[in-house]
Design brief:
35% of the residues lie in helices and 16% in strands. It is of the alpha/beta class. The protein has one domain: L-arginine/glycine Amidinotransferase, Chain A (5-stranded Propeller), CATH 3.75.10. β10, α10 and β11 form a beta-alpha-beta unit. The mean pLDDT is 97. The structure holds N~2~-(3-carboxypropanoyl)-L-arginine. The site of N~2~-(3-carboxypropanoyl)-L-arginine has 23 residues, from loops.
Length: 447
Amino acid sequence: MISAVEANADGLIGPTHSYAGLSPGNLASSVNAGEASNPRAAVLQGLDKMKRLADLGLPQFVLPPHERPHIQFLRDVGFSGTDGEVLASAWKTAPTMAAAACSASPMWAANAATVTPSADSADGRVHFTPANLVTNLHRSLEHTQTQGALSALFPDSARFAVHDALPSVPHLADEGAANHVRLCADHGGPGVNIMVWGREAYEPWAGAFPARQTREAFEAIARRHGAARTVFPRQSRAAIAGGTFHNDVVCVGTLDTLFFHDLAFEDTAATKADVRAQADGLFEPVFVEVSTSDLPLADAISSYLFNSMLVRLPGDARLTLICPTETRDNERSHAVAQELAASNGPIGRVEYVDVRQSMRNGGGPACLRLRVALTDDELAATNPAMRMTDELHARLSVWAATWYRDRLTPADLADPRLIDESRGALDDLTSILRLGGGFYPFQRTVT
Ligand code: SUG
């Protein structure tokens, strides 16, 4: 058995973190629309979460924020003049375009890509397909820069294959790892890849909220990655209608354990049977299912019990569930979490992290991270400057305090000074994370 670990790469929260109500079907994003955000608190919360994981002994990486406002996108939709003029006129005459161009949404790294580890891929490399995120305009602007960030972190093409996103069409709507769970006996051994989709490419969709992932998108990714042992369950329509915009809002898994709400899948019995069939001879899957009577879907969604990180810490026999503090604040979710930890089941411990700034946009601990199972050799081939250490945490905390505002209202996003602040921050970050020259579009512009 090749030894491997499950590493996490978290999206560093960008200087334009804001509440713009951009994601229909994501209830937190809608409810908090228009409120003032605190980008500095947000990025520090994210950094503390990363350091916590690193301190617990798991490899932790940082994915850089994207350049926002996305001036080139505003030029693409017809605005012209200086960068400041472009931003000002977009806010005046096309505020929905301007808001999309300002979002710090690349922070939710679970949506960065779908990953197939080398133990499951046909050519023995780790494969990444950046998600086209085509359902929401603000998120559809992410995949090119995400591809650059993944290539900076995983530079060795003999070991890593960073693909282009799938074509950006609704038929192939893809939201990345937020709808993918990999189960296995050991991270370095063969896994079962559960790829959960909300609709089919040609299916008429009458739901009140969008189904963001198509079956065909996941089938395409599985084909191009040469992914073994795939299972394609349908996300339940009831879950989507209740505000489950990604399956990771109601389901998380690691190693042999799948922890989920009973409304997660359209056909739970068939999903379990399919997973068991693919795992046959490799491991016996453990299903931890929480019933609607113990935890109504609305509580699961507002408290994000399942949008937690399920990890096995070095030296531990059982798993640790790392939940947002909102789980502790919800009586029912807290009771479920306490019961899990007290039982003899696979989850032995529950811990809490404060990511409230992100939570108010519907992004919990699991949304902020992209999981990548890496062998020792693959881990050694990553960009060391992007790995979280005490030094990097200290350096980025100072960097954030230097550049980030502690209050940002949607109206402030029209402030042209935000362009310079954001670019100044990203310029500094380029050298801190050794991202290479011309990493960001503004660094490539000849003036
Ligand atoms: O895509 N929110 C993100 C949250 C993503 C959470 N990710 C996972 N579940 N894996 C989204 O809906 C809101 C932005 C705003 O409204 O300003 C937003 O994009």
